[in-house]
Amino acid sequence: MQPTRVVVLAGGFGGARMAHGFALLGEHVQLSVILNTGDDLELHGLHVSPDIDTVMYTLAGIANNDTGWGVRDETWSASEMLGRFGEPTWFRLGDRDLATHIARTRRLAAGVGLTDATAELARALDVHAQLLPMTDDRVRTQVRTAAGWLDFQDYFVRRHHADDVLELRFEGIESANATAQVRAAIDAADVIVVAPSNPFLSVAPILSVGGILARLNAVRAPVIGVSPIVGREAVRGPAAQIMHSLGEEPGAHGIAMHYAHAWPGLLDVLVIDSVDAAEADAVNATGVRAHVTGTLIGAQKERRRLAQEILELAGAL
Amino acid sequence: MQPTRVVVLAGGFGGARMAHGFALLGEHVQLSVILNTGDDLELHGLHVSPDIDTVMYTLAGIANNDTGWGVRDETWSASEMLGRFGEPTWFRLGDRDLATHIARTRRLAAGVGLTDATAELARALDVHAQLLPMTDDRVRTQVRTAAGWLDFQDYFVRRHHADDVLELRFEGIESANATAQVRAAIDAADVIVVAPSNPFLSVAPILSVGGILARLNAVRAPVIGVSPIVGREAVRGPAAQIMHSLGEEPGAHGIAMHYAHAWPGLLDVLVIDSVDAAEADAVNATGVRAHVTGTLIGAQKERRRLAQEILELAGAL
Fold first, then answer.
1. What CATH number has the domain spanning B4-316?
2. Residue B78 Cα, gap to closest chain A Cα (Å)
């Protein structure tokens, strides 16, 4: 039997867990993950791709599950020394993690694209899924707050996403194009999954890259989203807070509304959590079919179960 | 009283110990160390300056005295991960050490010269001595062996300096010039010390940089060398072996002969170890005055004692 070709659109935290669920289904699934790179940054002269790395470490089985980022059994010697040298340390890089950025930066400096560099790193860590940066072009998410426009990690990490988000922009997005690998993965997909990632910060950059949204709208494969909001709060991160500051209603219904307005016709189904079952009718009324189930996927068993359930859902469409 | 202005020409191991001796004399000495950069290499896209770092870590009091290189209380997480990514790991870089190379490389990439970058790093580690790369220009020592021309660290670290050295060259030396800081330090020196470093691999590159040898020959300050050979063996490294393969006589007298032939008139005094006292007359016969004393300076007390003795010797000249 041919494996089911699954494409997951993913940010870091929720994206990694959702992608992991499909990876855990083994040979039944051929997994491609299209990854947000709007969160990328340069630190100490190194190219850091937080979302790529969170997904890569998770699929490699070396993620730090306590923090939700970085590598487990990490040490912090370089970071301490970098601090002595006056380098910024608000974005914490462990020693193992640092090696990833060094290996990536060396490849990029040698003229290798981010897609090929990522493939090499993932292969070295025995990751079987295809990890695809949304583009090889430079895109940088910026956030307007009362303090003005901030670089994404400045807002997110340094200022602990405490500012109200007034506006978002993806610097460079006008000239960013989907790679051949991203296009091929979408075209060949049997099912497309929008991970329970932040729609503003993780999904929007991906869908804004030239060629991706049009292609997703054109494919026949079902597109199934998973709500990152459970019981009016984001499982992690500032999604609910951003919805609030942008005048949207935080909740499963609000997520459905947001998708329906921002990207009409994209989602066939929105998977919402059982605690939000009462919002199913309101979700359905937006034109996106609600599917109610458990969406908390901290445990591997749950990741795998949700992935399996999404495949069955897609098969029934 | 004005401090005595001491300039030390130094490689890594012996250079660090000798420079440390003068640093330990505190405010009585204003220390500048002119450092060999022919051993520098690029690893993982980072600029590594082994001799600079050995001296810097030693003067900062964070050197690993067991290995003679690197930082003490080191961890190796990044190195292990770099290995997984297929990066070369024969030149071992600890996590703290790696931070130095990252901080240096970022500065160089921003257009800061190696001299200024080194000054910033040394200041951050509370090193009071002026650490001066011999040049800001790129020089790379290469070694001809039966296996052909090898990059220095390939010969020295990867192949454990096991090959016979047939010839040496310093790639880039023709267009390498002494920095303004090196020139000023030499011109202002009260005493110039050639550390017990390898004359072929550490001292020769320094003396080959445009402007340095001529300046040393012109200054009135005494130039005092310390033999790196004790009892016909190098305290560390391949000096004796190289002398042998180049047809020179390994020993205190051989060192004096080498200096007298390669750089006639440079040394006023050669400090040789007590175990080599019998060679003093032969050393004197080369035109370089022998001074016999203990030159094993593993212990801080001995480093300081030898530095003090050299200052007294210089004062008496």
1. 3.40.50.10680
2. 5
